[in-house]
Amino acid sequence: MVKDASQGIFFICNKIAEYGGDPNRIYLMGQSAGAHIAACTLLEQAIKEADAEQRASWSVYQIKVYYGLSGGTRMMTGMIKELENNDVAMELG
Known about the structure:
The chain is of the alpha+beta class. It has three helices and two strands; from the N terminus they run αβαβα.
């Protein structure tokens, strides 16, 4: 899975501008197991970059922010309550 994630990040880093994205604003986020896979991918990439004999296809320096999330359901519940308290209409579904 780490290899798959690394290939996905490689694609984003090298193609984002073609799709109208900003290559200087790449954010990496994962939730629960996805956060673990993203962290392992960044760590593996950093190890590759530190080893002069290994060729890296993308750089951890291309990732502006990494955010690993766990327990997102509580965050969402709190966010919905906050929106309701501020009279913001929201439809989920």
